[in-house]
Write a structure and sequence with these properties.
This protein is of the alpha/beta class and 209 residues long. The chain has a single domain, classed as 3-Layer(aba) Sandwich (Rossmann fold), CATH 3.40.50. Helices cover 41% and strands 21% of the residues. The chain has eight helices and seven strands; from the N terminus they run βαβααββαβαββααα. Strands 1, 2, 3, 4, 5, 6 and 7 form a seven-stranded mixed beta sheet that branches. Helix 1 links the parallel strand 1 and strand 2. Helix 1 crosses helix 7. The protein is globular, with a radius of gyration of 19 Å. The N and C termini lie far apart (43 Å). Keywords: Flavoprotein, FMN, Oxidoreductase. One of its GO terms (molecular function) is oxidoreductase activity. This is MsuE subfamily FMN reductase.
């Protein structure tokens, strides 16, 4: 049987179409291709935060997630790997991106491989991935791959000189993520906090006889 792996793709773009979603999709496609080359069947779930903005706000105000938001969080925290992409506003991640991860349990992404991506109008914002986005996932105890991918407006241009740098960065990050995801296999194997380590009859010590 072909081994299966799952990827959750979190995109915080606000417009439609969105360059943030486009970068997330490029990272997803490259990671899936690398996993398939290594003999894995990859299943992906796209989490578009724009569609969950009201649910996220309500969760912050009430402390309770909606069923739709719960489903998105479960898809991400149970995945073998995560692709997380945010637009850069005012030299940092977007408020929507941060708010989503604010409603995720701090330990829910412990040990989960994550590739980080961001988009912005100028390449000078690329360092935000290192001083803002990466520390956020360090706090969440995720395992971020070494290569983060930033796409500026010129990276989506039509000239060969403009677009030559982005595909290699995507491929390198995808290779790093796929290697960690291949070694993970968290899907369907998450520990059950209520699971018994021995049959219930043994725990009773014969009281049920």
């Amino acid at each position: 049987m072909t081994a299966k792996r799952t990827l959750a793709v979190v995109s915080a773009g606000l417009s439609q179409p969105s360059s943030t979603r486009l970068l997330a999709d490029r990272l997803r496609d490259a990671t899936v291709a690398r996993l398939e080359q290594d003999g894995y069947e990859a299943r992906t779930t796209s989490i578009e935060l724009r569609d969950l903005a009201q649910d996220i706000t309500n969760n912050l105000l009430t402390g309770f997630p909606s069923p739709r938001l719960s489903e998105a969080i479960e898809a991400m925290t149970s995945a073998d790997g995560v692709i997380a992409v945010t637009p850069i506003f005012s030299s940092s991640y977007s408020g929507l991106f941060k708010s989503f991860f604010d409603v995720v349990e701090p330990t829910a992404l412990t040990g989960v491989p994550v590739v980080l991506g961001a988009t912005g109008g100028s390449a000078r914002h690329s360092l935000a991935l290192e001083y803002a986005v990466r520390p956020l996932f360090a706090y969440l105890r995720a395992v971020t791959v070494p290569t983060a991918v930033f796409a500026a407006s010129e990276d989506w241009g039509s000239g060969d000189a403009q677009v030559s740098a982005l595909p290699p960065r995507i491929d390198r990050a995808a290779g790093e993520l796929s290697a960690l995801v291949a070694a993970s296999d968290r899907s369907g194997r998450l520990d059950d906090p209520f699971a018994l380590d021995r049959p219930f009859s043994e725990l009773l010590g014969g009281l049920g006889a």
